[in-house]
Design a protein that fits this description.
Shape: globular
Number of helices: 11
Number of domains: 1
Strand order of the largest sheet: 1-2
Keywords: Membrane, Transmembrane, Transmembrane helix
Structural class: mainly alpha
CATH class: Mainly Alpha
Pfam families: DUF6533
Distance between the termini: 61 Å
Order of helices and strands: HHHHHHEEHHHHH
Protein name: DUF6533 domain-containing protein
CATH architecture: Up-down Bundle
Low-confidence stretches: 79-87, 97-103, 294-334
Number of strands: 2
Mean pLDDT: 73
């Protein structure tokens, strides 16, 4: 079906695909450098918890994964000279070289990259889920609902990868692995990103309902200035949802409507944007919860406990107890 496509003998589409990937990766590392000082200041001094673990996992899983992705985009491992340099650098013995590259194929690399993208999205979703559950004080209903839907979405995502069709690889003069997806595979991968987008809708809806409820309870106007804690939570949640909605929409549309060599071109950009925005959400919460940034009527300890905790204690709060907890912690949101 795709063998008649003219781009198979032209490296330009493959190179353009690679440039889209590398632009997103460069944006990710640029933002990483911008926020590294805040990470050292606000996150490193914190005790180890689920929240800090997920933050570092999201942060450095993406850092390492994008290094691999960038290398595979432009390194022509099919070239014998480059293979020799690579293996010498990795101190792989001559006896092992033949065996290593006898199992090497673009198919393995591409599927590994797809798995890395999915794992990265799962980590981001887990971070957003703990943030949302903490916002609801680990309400039993919210915890069960979010975890249940999250497990279903992870299952759907894994199924799309396993049940997807194959890919046709493009032998061009451009370095790296280049391929076109079959229609079936493109649809299955699009479904995985659609599931991720649905989870974003769930998280944003819960955040929106919570902030409106808190504002209504304390007769406070809704604002996106980010001056108060709840304003900041709503603002960051709205920005994350809006940006990710656009990124996911572009990625999903590319799977369905782009030319064969460009299907999936926006997966890496969507993953990079999701990871860096998730990191900024957490860093902003830590920054607001520091004593220097809290008002005189606010308790930093209470703010940290309510917003940043990830201890899911199902028996601690009942649904009817939420209003009492909100009244107790009202000063932390002002």
């Amino acid at each position: 079906m795709y063998l008649g496509y003219s781009a198979l003998t032209d490296a330009s589409d493959s190179i353009l695909h690679s440039y889209v990937q590398i632009a997103a990766i460069m944006l990710f590392y640029y933002d990483y450098l911008l926020t590294f000082a805040a990470e050292v200041s606000h996150v490193w001094p914190q005790p180890i918890s689920v929240n800090t673990f997920l933050f570092f996992l999201n942060r450095y899983f993406s850092v390492c994964g994008n290094i691999v992705a960038a290398f595979l985009l432009f390194a022509d491992l099919g070239n014998s000279n480059q293979r020799s340099v690579l293996l010498s650098t990795l101190a792989i013995s001559r006896q092992c070289r033949t065996k290593v590259f006898s199992i090497y194929s673009c198919d393995i690399i591409v599927h590994a990259r797809e798995a890395l993208l999915v794992l990265g999205q799962i980590v981001v979703s887990a971070t957003l889920a703990t943030r949302t559950m903490a916002l609801y004080h680990s309400s039993r209903t919210v915890v069960i609902g979010v975890l249940g839907i999250g497990i279903v979405i992870v299952g759907v995502t894994c199924w799309t990868l396993v049940a997807g069709g194959g890919s046709t690889f493009v032998p061009t003069s451009a370095p790296g692995c280049h391929y076109i997806l079959s229609e079936r595979s493109a649809i299955h991968l699009a479904a995985a990103w659609e599931a991720s987008a649905l989870f974003d809708v769930l998280v944003f809806s819960l955040t929106l309902m919570r902030t409106f409820k808190m504002r209504k309870m304390h007769n406070m106007a809704i604002s996106l200035t980010g001056e108060g804690l709840m304003d900041m939570v709503l603002r960051d949640g709205a920005l994350y949802f809006a940006v990710m909605a656009l990124a996911n929409l572009a990625n999903i549309f590319a799977f369905y409507f782009a030319v064969p060599t460009f299907k999936g071109a926006f997966s890496t950009p969507a993953s990079c944007i999701s990871s860096l925005l998730c990191s900024r959400l957490v860093l902003n919460l830590y920054e607001v919860a520091t004593p220097d940034n809290t008002g005189s009527g606010s308790s930093p300890e209470l703010m940290t406990t309510v917003i940043l905790t990830t201890r899911i204690e199902l028996g601690t709060f009942k649904d009817d107890d939420l209003s009492e907890v909100e009244s107790t912690g009202s000063s932390a949101y002002q």
